[in-house]
Each structure stands twice: as C-alpha cells, then as structure tokens.
Design a protein that fits this description.
Layout lengths: L13 H6 L3 E8 L4 H13 L2 E7 L8 H7 L8 E4 L2 H10 L2 E6 L6 E2 L10 E6 L8 H6 L2 E4 L11 H15 L5
Parallel strand pairs: 1-2, 1-6, 2-3, 4-6, 4-7, 5-7
Helix pairs in contact: 2-3, 2-6
C-alpha cells in the first residue's frame, strides 16, 4: 500500500466548499474552554461538510492562532455564528425548525447508535463544557439528549472526540457515508 498524495485525494477548494450541499447538522459549542477543541471541531466539521457551528458563551471565535493550529484553515470555510449563551442558540435553532439535542448523560437519553434521524429534517447537537458538560437549562430546552455509551472508568470523553463521533454517526445515518 502506498499513501495517497494530497493531489490524489480529490479535495474541493474553498469556493466549491462554500457552494456545496451541507450535512443538515449544526454543532453548538456551549462554553468550550480549549481553543484546540474548538479548532478540532471546525476541522471535523469541514471533513463532513457540516452546515455550521454555533459558538456560545466563553467559547472563542476565529480568528485565533490556537484555533487555527488544529483547524488548519477549516475555520475559514465552515460557517459559524456566535451567541452570548447557548439558550439563545437553542431558541434560534428551534425558531428555524431544527431538532435540537444535547450530547449529555441524562435520565431518558437515547444512545447514539439507537438515535434515529428523520429524512429531510435538520438537526443541531449541543456539546458542553469540558468539565461541567451541557448546562442543565440548555438540556431542559432541548428536544432530547443523546448519550455515547462508555465502558471504562471515566465518565466522559474529550469534547472534540465526542464531536467527531457524533458528526460521523449523523453523516452515516443521513446517508452521507456509504
């Protein structure tokens, strides 16, 4: 096996990315402390052509060198918005007919592998602070919660890892991954 060269991968350019169809999924980052986590979510969102990222609260916004370090330019092509708090983002998303789900361990959550998407529906997922998770009031305002099953001694995953798993699963369930 020989590794592919960048020129062999058939990647699209900035203008093509902006014009291309997007995965009908918005990622909400609720008070994310690490700019590297923010950058990583931008990079994964670029890879799967996520519709947009909404940055909330203390979550840093581009341009920032620490975001760029992990985003590698994805912050320049992935659409993003900023809201002072995640409740404003949830209200905005609901007013635009999104199904909004917290990625959180709560009573009554649905496991990621069991969550079913409806064809033609747009979704948003809220990823919470690295220590405190998604704020309770935000969980309460969501349409439901999705949980990633875990089997080790820790009770959580890194927020950028969680984002990657969730984006992959939504892309797969929405037919973007064959």
């Amino acid at each position: 096996m020989k590794k592919k060269l960048v020129t062999e991968m058939g990647r699209i350019g900035r203008e093509e990315f902006v014009a291309a169809d997007k995965l009908p999924l918005t990622i909400v980052l609720d008070n994310i402390r690490s700019l590297h986590n923010v950058g990583s979510v931008f990079r994964t969102s670029d890879a799967f052509r996520v519709e947009r990222i909404i940055l909330c609260g203390i979550t840093a916004t581009p341009p920032q060198p620490e975001i760029h370090k992990t985003a590698l330019g994805a912050e320049d092509v992935v659409d993003w918005l900023y809201f002072a708090d995640a409740m404003q983002a949830v209200e905005y998303l609901h007013s635009n007919n999104y199904g909004v789900y917290a990625i959180e361990q709560v009573q009554g959550s649905v496991s990621l592998q069991s969550f079913e998407v409806e064809e033609g529906k747009r979704y948003a997922v809220v990823l919470g602070n690295e220590v405190k998770g998604v704020q309770q009031q935000v969980v309460d305002a969501c349409d439901g919660a999705i949980e990633i099953p875990q089997f080790g001694t820790k009770h959580s995953l890194n927020v950028s890892v969680t984002g990657g798993m969730v984006i992959w699963e939504f892309a797969r369930k929405m037919g973007w991954v064959k």
